[in-house]
């Protein structure tokens, strides 16, 4: 008996930082077996939680919330050791003086918002008043003393001489902990692995091949970024080269520390194991 399964739905973050995973992804080759849905990280996080997305890069923090239902693809993340260049806090006062002031947060991210809260609370012992605002720097700074921008919004604002302090959260995390930071991970629902293991394997291999081809020659991505967002060729070559799309032991260690602090500070209500997908469809839990 033939079982008619619905397509596997792949979520795509609406930011340039995931382009290498998708640029050469052979969507047409999968026919009606695969669909791609493009949204900002918070929307994808919610869609994954509801079971509307089966595979895709989601905020690392969202994986922490959904770890019981998901596995992680190895060798695939959006990570940085030090500067990430697209997770930026713009602030009028030094970080140690932000206690009690208003900090505007974007509605588009979970990992970066909680990374900021961890850095300020654990390492600076300050607790601002957090409010959510549209990711427009001028709007944020009209009603707050600091504003967090991520992705392409942060990149565009970093090109302007705004007169504020600018803290790169990737650089600050590495300076304080000596660790990598993984801002997004590629998660897959366990149910999808159980139902369609061979198709999952093919999708994983296609992602890795897209990543390999993209990083081997950044020119097409750089050209596309310039057309879509602006900036110089030099900027985009440096941006894509500086990010890491790996997800191995060094990235695992940094992410586990992030989850440890999130749980200690009450941002997560449980500890988070990193459960990795394997071809055998058996989860491996890292300690």
TrEMBL record:
Cross-referenced HAMAP family: MqnA
CDD domains given in the database record: PBP2_Sco4506
Family in the record: Belongs to the MqnA/MqnD family. MqnA subfamily.
Enzyme Commission numbers on file: 4.2.1.151
Enzyme class: lyase
Substrates-to-products reaction catalysed: chorismate = 3-[(1-carboxyvinyl)-oxy]benzoate + H2O
Summary of the function given for this chain in its UniProt record: Catalyzes the dehydration of chorismate into 3-[(1-carboxyvinyl)oxy]benzoate, a step in the biosynthesis of menaquinone (MK, vitamin K2).
Highest taxon in the source lineage: Bacteria
Protein name per its UniProtKB record: Chorismate dehydratase
Entry keyword annotation includes Repressor: no
Tagged with keyword tRNA-binding: no
A GO BP annotation: menaquinone biosynthetic process
Protein's organism: Paenibacillus validus
One family name in Pfam for this protein: VitK2_biosynth
A GO molecular-function descriptor: hydro-lyase activity
Record keywords, A-Z: Lyase, Menaquinone biosynthesis
Pathway listed: Quinol/quinone metabolism; menaquinone biosynthesis
């Amino acid at each position: 008996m033939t079982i008619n399964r619905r397509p596997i739905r792949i979520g795509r973050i609406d930011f340039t930082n995931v382009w290498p995973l998708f640029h050469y992804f052979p969507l047409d080759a999968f026919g009606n077996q695969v669909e791609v849905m493009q949204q900002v990280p918070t929307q994808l996080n919610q869609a994954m939680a509801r079971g509307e997305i089966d595979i895709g890069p989601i905020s690392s923090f969202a994986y922490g919330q959904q770890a019981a239902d998901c596995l992680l693809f190895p060798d695939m993340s959006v990570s940085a050791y030090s500067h990430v260049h697209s997770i930026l806090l713009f602030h009028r006062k030094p970080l140690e003086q932000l206690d009690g002031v208003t900090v505007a947060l974007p509605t588009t991210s979970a990992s970066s918002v909680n990374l900021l809260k961890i850095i300020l609370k654990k390492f600076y012992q300050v607790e601002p008043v957090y409010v959510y605002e549209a990711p427009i720097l001028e709007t944020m700074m009209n009603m707050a003393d600091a504003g967090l921008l991520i992705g392409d919004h942060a990149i565009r604002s970093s090109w302007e001489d705004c007169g504020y302090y600018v803290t790169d959260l990737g650089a600050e995390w590495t300076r304080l902990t000596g660790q990598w930071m993984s801002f997004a991970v590629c998660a897959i629902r366990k149910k999808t692995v159980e139902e369609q293991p061979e198709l999952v394997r093919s999708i994983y291999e296609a992602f890795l091949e897209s990543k390999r081809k993209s990083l081997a020659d950044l020119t097409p991505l750089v050209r596309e970024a310039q057309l879509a967002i602006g900036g110089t060729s030099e900027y985009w070559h440096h941006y894509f080269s500086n990010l890491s799309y790996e997800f191995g032991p060094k990235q695992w260690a940094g992410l586990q520390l992030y989850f440890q602090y999130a749980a200690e500070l009450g941002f997560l209500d449980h500890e988070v194991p990193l459960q990795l997908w394997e071809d055998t469809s058996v989860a491996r839990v890292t300690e």
